[in-house]
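Recall that a protein's primary structure is simply its ordered list of amino acids. Everything else, from secondary elements to tertiary packing, is in principle encoded there. The following example makes that idea concrete.
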Amino acid sequence: MSSLNRGVAKVEVTLKWDPSPLGRPPHDLDLVAATYTSDDPSGKPAYLVHFGSRSPDGTITLDRESRTGQGFGSDEEMTLELDRLAARYSRVVVGVAIQQRDGRRTFADIVNPGVRILEGYTELAEHDFAAVPGSTAATFAEFTRDGSGAWQFRTSVRGFDTDPQSFGALMGDA
């Protein structure tokens, strides 16, 4: 992919899943992005984007959010304008957390979960979370700034057994 040679500039992450079976409580999955500074690239995130929020500078936005998985196409969409992030940020980790309001749910309980990472029309990665069926949250994308200032992309699915509120603090370990 030629776009990776020059670095990743603007990325769209889409998340989808099928609604819960009739008569069961709805499944609610949430995209989460954690942004880290050069001073602490694996510690506490400088900020999180989740649940309908956006980054303080508007470079990471949650454009679409679903609480049920109903509808056509993607249920949640997040845009990351990495090329606009301030130079003090060196790492962004993206993941998904399953809300646990109606009892513990894992990716094995969710019908057809899937995430896609796109740069323009180029698909950088796609995951179905089959590698982490017993997890309640997972990271799947990491963007790091290299020595030249260009953003590089790495994908790896890593599962966590935690609630959505604690997930943000653990994402840097990915």
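The chain has a mean pLDDT of 87. The beta strands are 10-16, 29-37, 47-50, 60-64, 76-81, 89-98, 114-119, 122-127, 137-145, 151-160.
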